[in-house]
Structures are given as C-alpha cells and as structure tokens.
Amino acid sequence: MSTLLWTSDAMATAMRATTQGTLPDGVTGLSIDSRTIAPGEAYFAIKGDVHDGHAFVAAALKAGAGLAVVEAAQRDKFPTDAPLLVVDDVLAGLVELAHASRARLNAKIIAVTGSVGKTSTKEALRRVLSAQGETHASVASFNNHWGVPLSLARCPASTRFAVFEIGMNHAGEITPLVKMVRPHVAVITTIEPVHLEFFAGIEAIADAKAEIFAGLEPDGAVVLNRDNGQFARLQKQAKKAGISRIVSFGSDKRAEARLLDLSLHATCSAVHADILNHDITYKIGMPGRHMAMNSLAVLAGASLLGADIARAALSLSQLEAPTGRGFRRTLEVGHGEATLIDESYNANPASMGAALNVLGQAPTGAHGRRIAVLGDMLELGPTGPELHRGLNEAVTANRIDLVYCCGPLMRNLWDALSTGKRGGYAESSAALEAQAVAAVRAGDVIMVKGSLGSKMKLIVSALEKRFPDKAAHEEAV
After folding, report:
1. What's the whole-number mean pLDDT along residues 384-403?
2. pLDDT at 471
3. Which of 236, 272, 277, 359 has the highest CB neighbour number within 10 Å of its CB?
4. CA-to-CA distance for 348 and 28, rounded, in angstroms?
5. Three-state helix/strand/coil letters over 231-272
6. Residue 455, domain CATH
7. pLDDT of residue 473 exceeding 70
8. pTM as predicted
9. Domain count, the chain
10. Which domain, by its residues, includes 240?
11. Strand-strand pairing, 370-375 and 402-406
C-alpha cells in the first residue's frame, strides 16, 4: 500500500476547506492533470490560461483520484456525493498547502534560479543529493506561480534534501515563491539577456533574480557566478539582504568553487576543481563547458547542505540530458547512422551559444556534417534581431557546416550566414520540417534548438519518425 502524502483532514485544515462527500483517509500524491493522475491522488482543478481544471474533475475521479479540490463557486456542478475539498480559490488553496508542507519539513532545502541552466542544475542537484539521502525535487520546469507550490506541497515529510527551481518572466515574481520555499541555500547560475522584452536591461534582470535572497533562511548561504558580469551587483544585493555566507564559483581565481582544468569530450567532460578547499577531479556525464561551470555550483551547494563533496562529485558521472535539453539519439540513416541532439525545449542567446559549442565538439562520421536547425529565440524585445544575427559568430567559431533557420527573427541569422553554410529557411518549423529531414545523411550530427514557442519539437518528431532510433530498433530485434 502506498504511503499517504497528506491525510484528508490535514489538507482541509491547511487550505481552510469545507468537505463534500465521503473523503478517503488521505491521498498518495497531488496532480493538476486528469490525463496522468494516478489512483489515490488528489486532483486540483486549477484554472489555466487555456483550460479550467473544473471541466476535468469528473475525468479525474473516474481515473481513480481520491478527491478533488474545487472552488466554492463551482461546487454545484458536481454530485453531492463526490469527494471534494471546497475552497474559495484552488490556486490559493494549493499555496496554503505548500506553506503547510514547508512548516512540517525538517529537510535541508536548496533553491535554484538564473537566466540559463536552472533545470540542468536542479537535475544535477537531484542526482547528487539522492545518493546521500531521501531527496525531493521539482519535476520538469515546475518553476512558476503554480509549479513551485505544487512541487513544495508534494514534498514528503520524511525528505532529507529538497531542490526547487524558481523562475520568472517579470520583476516581483520570485519573492512570493522563495518566501514559500524558504531555502537554506540559494543558487543563481548566471545572469544573461533573457526576457529583455519585459526588462529595461540586464541589470534589471539581475535585480529580479536577486529577489531569491528575500526568502533565505537565517544563516543561509548563496552561491553566485563569479565569472558573470553581474556578480558584483548580486553580491551587493546579498549583503544588503543581510546574507554573510556568499560562495562564488567560476574560473576566477577568487572563486571558492574554482575551475582549475577542463577537458571537453563529445559526450562527457572531465573537470579538475577546487571546491571549498577540496581538490577534486571528476567526470560529468554530459558535454559542454556550461555544464562544467554549473557543476561547480552544484558541488558547492550540496556541500553547504551537508552532503559529502567526494560522493557528490562521483554522482555527476551519471548525469544524462533530459528530453529537449540536449538528449541524444542515434538514428538509423540508410546503412549508417546519424546523431540527433534534441535541444528543442527552449533557447536564449546564452544557451544557444552553449548548444552550438557542444555541436562543434561532437564527432561526425565519415563525410558527416554538423547541422544546426534553429528556431526563434523569443522575448528578447528590440534587441532580438541583433542577437539572432550575432549567432553567426558562434556558427563560424564552432565549425558548423549547415544551418537551417525558421521564424522571422532567425531570418536575421540566415541573412548573415555565408552562402556555403545556408541549408534552408522557412517562416515556421512546420514549413522547415521537410527540408531538415531531407538534408540528413549518414555520419551527420543534427542539433535542433529554439524557444518553446518556435515549436522546434515538430522537427525533432519528424526526424525520429523518418529515421528509427537505433537503440530502440536493436532492442526490438
């Protein structure tokens, strides 16, 4: 029998809910998606930008949900015997439950924000801490106004370490989330020109990320990127917030978590570093200088939580890229094979540069080429055209052979490319799909990347449909 995450009584008390129908003793989990809910979980009828979760309460209960959390204004839509917790506002109720979760926790908590690398850093922390005690971490990129409270409310009381990702698009969004999480350690990976559509400049982005200091527990610590141009500004903000334990990471000789040497390989990296006066050499199971730099923050953060640095470093060898964030597949192409690097989940200038660097490091087969299939980087404001055009420098530096572009912003890169590097251009990913698929031949390495709104996953799916995954095919045989 599954362990109860919450008793029904505790949920009702925390959310100040009234009850309807016969409730179970408790629930084993929390869900906001009726399509994936597991039997025994509680369903929260959140109102999203497109759908109102109340429309799916019946489906959730039919799928085995133990109870549903609904708003009072809509309770009459459901049978009187339906197991319901009724609140004024479902999202507000979830936030209250998250606060109750934090109050019962004895765990050491770390929160991660930054313009780039939040999810990969969070996943690395999950990996290294899980080897040293029961660890809870947010799933996927649950880092916004509903993702953070859902992740916190899902945290079992027995947890030893908890890892939360906190994101933002606008100033003021991090403060309520970090005050809910109340971490013992806060990590800011880097500050880059992301979401410029909503900010006056990069300094304003740094100030918004610095909101994470507002919720730090007394005597907590922050981990900051010493190599980043906004380090001094963030350091000043941390001190202003009364934080005395400020740990920096990077290649700067003053960093407490300092990169001493780095060897980059096609599918991994070897790192020699000084982490809080521990001289250590370790392997990361993912390629790229950006991963090596973030690993310094991971080890420093884990150590500040009380984890063993040597064991944590050993765990980094097991890292794997998630789908859409650098995940690799070997595709069968004719009698040979090609490599697909799926970076389709999101993109900004910094992550695009890092991905092109990884593509440049990737070995091709005989007569193979390095092919970049790129979609628009969104939310860059007036600087968007210039930042897209500027990618040509990274394309050249990393010896990319062919570039396929889609979207009105990527037209700026297309125009800047030399004729020999132009693969194809289209206004949308759907229109580019056939060109990109037709270009692939044995020996190629293809990297697909763009902002989520650019829908580059369409091209990844088309490549996977046209060319079988070699590993899956061999298993089937």
Report:
1. 97
2. 63
3. 359
4. 38
5. HHHHHHHHHHCCCCEEEEEECCCCCCEEEEEEEECCCCEEEE
6. 3.90.190.20
7. no
8. 0.89
9. 3
10. 105-318
11. parallel
